[in-house]
Every structure is written in structure tokens, then in C-alpha cells.
Amino acid sequence: MHKLSKQIGKSGLILALSLSLNLGLNLSFGWFAPKVEAAEKLVVNYRIFSHSIPVRELRHLADTGEASRSIQFYLRLANRNPEELQQILTDPVAVNGTDLYQILESPLANIALDEVSQVIHSPNNLSNRESLKAALVGAALPDGQIRLIDVLEKYPTTEVHLNGERLVDFVQQINSFLNIFR
């Protein structure tokens, strides 16, 4: 974990572990479900609210800065602008994919991935750790960088579920933990 934090920094570690979606080297998960090249939908659940956002619309925003009508609607509700979401989707974290895979196989990383899986998970809530590993490593391998949009696209199920309430709690816990080191 220490080696990873040196390579990608605190914010990168948060991104890598918290939005460790879709992990492409998911060998153990691959035989449980049909092969999926990319997640098609991000399903955001927050209390009684649930909404699906096509990953292709997020990719379009990431590439062009242009938000679809549905994304614009939710950005207005959250009092955010498209540029903020574009930055979150595209900010790169430099990491060696092979090293990342080895680090993600450690017991400490498994604990972290299990925690993250309470925030980001597959539709059936099965094989979450493996799915996250596959998405993270799959996002890192082509160019040595992890971007959230790439992680979403590498998630090995057609839907990626995001638990908004757990995300808020998780971000608060991470920030509290990082404040110890500041």
C-alpha cells in the first residue's frame, strides 16, 4: 500500500481505491457471467432516488465537456457544473498496471476493496472485489493511468451501481483519515 501511495499520491489512492470500478483482469469473475466489454449504465441510488446514466453520455461529457440533458438536470440539482464532473471523470492517476494488480492482491487491499464495494458494486452485489480489481487494472494497463471514466468502461457488468449514501459516508471517512497525515 505504501508503494502505491508514493506512486499515485493521496488523491490518486482515493480514486484508485474508492472508484476502483471495473477491473479488467477479472479471471475469477469471467466464468460467472458473459463477457462484457464495458458497463453500459451507471445506476445511482440515493435514499429513495434511483437513476440510470448511460456510460456513453458520461464518456461524451469526458471527451467534449458537453453534458446531455439528463446529466445537466442532475448537475443542476447538485448545484455543480459540467466542468467539475468532466474533471472528476478525466483526472488521471499515474500507476503501473502490473504493480497495481500485485498491490490489489494484498490482504490490506482486499479489505479496502470490500469497503469500496459497499459504495460501488455490481447489480447483483456479487464478485464486487474482483470486479473492482478488474476495472482498475484494466483502466491502468493501456497507458499507465487510471481515469474514472475508464474504470466505468472497464467494469465487467452491464451496470455499475453507486450507493450515494454510502459514498458520502465513505468520502467523509477518507477525509478524516487523510487529515491525520496533514
Could you characterize what this model shows?
This protein has 182 residues and is of the alpha+beta class. The chain has one domain. The protein is 57% helix and 13% strand. It contains ten helices and six strands, in the order H-H-E-E-H-H-H-E-H-H-E-H-E-H-E-H. Strand 1 and strand 2 (49-54) form a beta hairpin. Helix 3 crosses helix 5 (82-90) and helix 7 (107-116) packs across helix 8 (128-140). It is globular, with a radius of gyration of 15 Å. The protein starts with a helix and ends with a helix. Mean pLDDT is 79; it is low at 1-34.
> Percent of residues in beta strands?
5-15%
Number of helices: 10
Return the average pLDDT rounded to an integer: 79
> Taking strands numbered 1, 2, ... along the chain, how are they ordered across the largest sheet?
2-1-6-4
Secondary-structure element order, N to C:
HHEEHHHEHHEHEHEH
- State the major sheet: 4 strands, mixed
The structure class reads alpha+beta
Show the helix and strand layout.
Blueprint: H1 2-18, H2 27-30, E1 41-46, E2 49-54, H3 55-64, H4 69-77, H5 82-90, E3 93-94, H6 97-104, H7 107-116, E4 120-121, H8 128-140, E5 145-146, H9 148-154, E6 159-163, H10 164-180
Parallel strand pairs: 1-6
Antiparallel strand pairs: 1-2, 3-5, 4-6
Helix pairs in contact: 3-5, 6-8, 7-8, 8-9
